[in-house]
Amino acid sequence: MYPYRAPLREIRFTLHEILHAAHHYADIGREDLNAEFIDSVLEEAARFAEGVVAPTNEAGDRIGVRFEDGQVITPPGFKDAYERFVEAGWAALCGPEEFGGQGLPESFGGPVGELFVSANMSWKMYSGLTDSAVLCLERHAPEHLKQLYLPKMVAGTWTGTMCLTESQSGTDLGLLRTRAEPDGEGTYRINGTKIFITSGEHDLTGNIVHLVLARLPDAPAGTRGISLFLVPKYLPDAAGEPGEPNGVSCGRVEEKMGIHGSATCVINFQNARGWLIGEENAGLKCMFVMMNHARLWVGLQGLAQAERSLQASLAYARERRQGRAARGGEAGTPADLIILHSDVRRMLLTQKALVEGSRILTYFAGLQMDKAAYHPDPEERRKAGDLLAILTPIVKSFVTDAGVEVTSTGIQVHGGHGYIRETGVEQFLRDTRIACIYEGTNGVQALDLLGRKVLGSGGQLARLLGGLIGAFCQNHAGYEELSDYVPRLAGLLKAWSEVTERVAQRAARDPEEVGAAAVDYLQLTGYLCLAWCWAKVAAVSIAALKREPADRGFYEAKLATARFYFTRLLPRADAHLDALDAGAEPVMALAAEHFG
Amino acid sequence: MRKILVGVKRVIDYNVRIRVKPDGTGVVTDGVKMSINPFDEIALEEALRMRERGEAAEIIAVCIGPDDAQQQLRTALAMGADRAILVKHDGPVDPLVAARTLHAIAQKESPALVIVGKQAIDDDAAQTGPMLAALWDRPQATFASKVEFKGETLVVTREVDAGLETDEVDLPAVITADLRLNEPRYVKLPDIMKAKKKPLDVTDLASLGVDAGSPAQVVRWEPPAQRQKGVMVKDAAELVDMLKKKGLI
Fold first, then answer.
1. Chain A interface, mutation test: which of B15, B45, B187, B197, most A Cβ atoms within 10 Å?
2. Which residues contact B190 (CB under 8 A, 6 or more apart)?
3. Which of A86, A187, A284, A552 has its CA 20 to 30 A from that of A44?
């Protein structure tokens, strides 16, 4: 397996040169988070990710979690790395200071999280969901529960879960059956079985805090009758330490295609004591805080695994010699490096363009979380919240789909050596594949984007995103050096706005239109957003090259990749435009019984 | 209570593949990841452990380098140094100039101990420690793999060609840290936050009265010769044969 090297130069370029992160932090009143500080945090996180976390990735995959006598045993090295992670304070990165966290804005979780997720995606899941659970409790839990649970969860000494799915209720949460009955002591008794619970049971920490969706006895049917409960594995004793068991048990651990080191559990609640979080029957609303956060995290997983695959592909293409390059080869060698072959270059550039572009988009979405929460101007807060709402399904789906393409391409670059286990690159594909499914499948994300966000807001969210890209085009119009980028971006933006209009008109007449259009619409929007990111990169790199930097090669590579994205990948957007204009009819024409 | 001065050199990170500038005037450093010299990290770690055992009160990290070297000093502060001094200087740092600088600061700060790495991974000179001891006229123990206080002296185990040598030195003294002295800690996030507020003084060679001249002149830089492709031999006999043919044995 190729050792993981944190791509700090790339991350710094994205944060400082493209997104101007230090200005962003100053805007939200955190002048102390200057570029030097950001770099210090990144450097130390990189050391930890490379030195402590990455070495656990292979054993995590090969050995995986074991399930013995109702107990989950995490792979060798996971517990030690986790304890060191907690001790070094990384678990508390964005946790609120009030509960012992470091109080860094949520956006820090993007770049810092990428490093840990690249190092070992399965391992990072134990703490990743805890962060989402903390956000949910901070927002919705009554004070006494915050005081009892948050200090431990923020520090990472207890972890959190989200218990939504049941065997009959996956995408459709309205079908869930887990019951919650008042016990006359101000709390509730929870009974039911949840499946696919990430980190539902493990041996890393002394307690696990489940956030469980369940129905009260008199609850209305469907999604309006779901409440959220906090259910600890062990009831805290008088000192706040894990005490009596609480009727929560693990019935099974799933065997999976990838993320073998992550415990995916069946969790049984038998008369377990639960505390209501938020209002009765408003559980889904509370859970959405957590899910939206988790969705950005899932996008980050696609990015992080794609980065690993890119690193491995580049290393391999620079050492593997096969065949002769078309324009003659290197004298004195029996064959040329495969990085000289056009088709291999096409694959490497596809990987590079998708990874580096997705990084910008994902971090940009992260910054909106901060602005939505902390910007002094309420209008800016509202705008950032709206932008985050439209970007979340794009980041979740587009970046995880890109993750699958990039990690699959990584195998292709390695040929047969990528398909066997030794090089480790097939693990990246197996691990990242789940990211297209959990936290709402990519199909559901597409419906969320088109149905709820774009059409549901009467086009307002689409105009906000389009306005942002349009403003970039206006500010950069007329520059000869950008003539390969800006006019094309502006043209695509126009086509996107128009097709949005046409889809909206058809959707008003045809209830099947939204479902049939959604995935193509999301992909089109994703390619548009990445074109915006790469056009920005082109503008920044052209300006940087004029200053005669010593590392010219870095900016030249950026420009070459921007050109590749615009000329070789962006035509995919036209295919999605055509598909959208074909409408729902070709999808719906075939009768279900005639599918074969 | 004792003060410890630790020399922290800013070098190209050990993971980076070094490239020599085409005109032979140096190596490419722009856009290249820079880090604390790994041996200096070990030196700092040892000082931190001494403070944690109550054997020292204050640790001062010193770096000679450009403005950007503040980054390495912040790392030193995050590891646990109490304060830092940046001595501004552009271009390569000559060992004699480094020794003079540390000497000047030692005279001001009167530390009980100066610890530096046994060598820096960029020029591999291994001269700063011994030169400082000579200028300061104090005892030195180089290549230390174990260090223990014994009253007002220091017992140092040194890694030498013949094995391990144990020396006892009077304080103040100069120690240079070898690889096996310790394993430096990972920095904790709260300590990075605290490091933002720790004092970092900036000065320069002229203000310290340090002569920047050196009798050593770097003439030219060039990359080492490319390694030739190896051959596989089938057994020991063939290996011996081959070595003989090449006149190596």
1. B187
2. A89, A102
3. A552
